[in-house]
């Protein structure tokens, strides 16, 4: 499989490795991006592949709460200027309210819903906004929770987080719980966990991680028995990076998020458990309309 300068640029962006290392990895992997990432990690050149590509698309991540219902939604547009347009923001809010009220299963179902507070469908309103604002727009994704929850928006709509908790009504009504819940949402925004707890990590992901780490240790010249101990230690470190409850709490590094949660539960006289979360980052994984970085790499490769 052949590869292009754009592939080299994408691999460099995802791994943070040097251009020539990325070119060699793609050559070794016959152009396969995932195998190239594995190659770089086995050589100890890449700590881990970044979860997403370059953050490039514009628009807005928006959160809406009404009682025990919460929604986080991402709507994309072509320019950052539109994200500050009052008409665009009002449209995004209408979409969020429609999700809260009508529980659509996905974006396609949302587009067919009659928009909250309007006679038109969401699709009709979207077409109208594209015509009046003059930019292409797209409702990309949303999440809806019911129960004891918190929403949090960071960076004026760049990152949106929603967390669902299992606790009793008395505990959830206390000010201490609200402060705790916001702390957890801010943790997710800052530390980008992938899972709530290690039991949720698919076994095939751990198996692949062990395979890469074992090759890495052997390439470092470690004997097999030492490599196995190193891998087990590094897997525990991996859990602390990707699992929310195992992460160090950002406001007190001596506590894990799980320990902080237990501490607040005791102080409030109840039990608290983190059930689930979503974290949307605007434009996550979407490509720019123009990417001159690939051209820059192409000129360097000549």
From TrEMBL:
Its main location: cytoplasm. Keywords: Cytoplasm, Elongation factor, Protein biosynthesis. This is Elongation factor Ts. The gene is tsf. PANTHER family: ELONGATION FACTOR TS (PTHR11741), ELONGATION FACTOR TS, MITOCHONDRIAL (PTHR11741:SF0). The lineage of its organism: Bacteria, Bacillati, Bacillota, Clostridia, Eubacteriales. One of its GO terms (molecular function) is translation elongation factor activity. Residues 70-284 form the Translation elongation factor EFTs/EF1B dimerisation domain. Associates with the EF-Tu.GDP complex and induces the exchange of GDP to GTP. It remains bound to the aminoacyl-tRNA.EF-Tu.GTP complex up to the GTP hydrolysis stage on the ribosome. NCBIfam families: tsf.
